[in-house]
């Protein structure tokens, strides 16, 4: 057993492991432009950080009165996103160190994301993280996306561990809420600094208000050691 006891770690992907939000914004902007919505801004995009692509598009259909079927819009956005993701997706350096540190100790790890299964696999393969993160759950594979706990509970099931022994790493309030609903610990690294005071982050075990600039693999590891000692 590792120095972390029986702790398992579940990572959100977008905005937590990798800085994929710029690619998601651009894919969304292009998709909406194709539907005649010409003024989609980064501030508009920020409203949807942390919820699944499918749920985002359902909200867009309502907000922008889009006539195209949801599945057509979803396929369009995913196609555009995958083109951008394949060209360039950056892993946060301290997150890569953290994954490698946990892998070296044999800590069970998974990715649970609101992205499509294909998008998750493209990013993990392209960044070299797939060799460490083999257990993957997409919101497409469960009944409800975040803030429902389904993706995290399914990740724990696939890892063969109990939810109470899991710690989630998240960047967005819906994900923190989902981790809490799943009965899991949570390290929150807010992608949007202005969301640090969101009530969902009040439930987490460790909140790094400075986001990725404040996150270090060593500090996260030390917190996990204490979590494992309590469990």
TrEMBL record:
<protein>
    <submittedName>
        <fullName>HAD family phosphatase</fullName>
    </submittedName>
</protein>
<dbReference type="InterPro" id="IPR023214">
    <property type="entry name" value="HAD_sf"/>
</dbReference>
<dbReference type="InterPro" id="IPR006439">
    <property type="entry name" value="HAD-SF_hydro_IA"/>
</dbReference>
<dbReference type="InterPro" id="IPR036412">
    <property type="entry name" value="HAD-like_sf"/>
</dbReference>
<dbReference type="InterPro" id="IPR023198">
    <property type="entry name" value="PGP-like_dom2"/>
</dbReference>
<dbReference type="Pfam" id="PF00702">
    <property type="entry name" value="Hydrolase"/>
</dbReference>
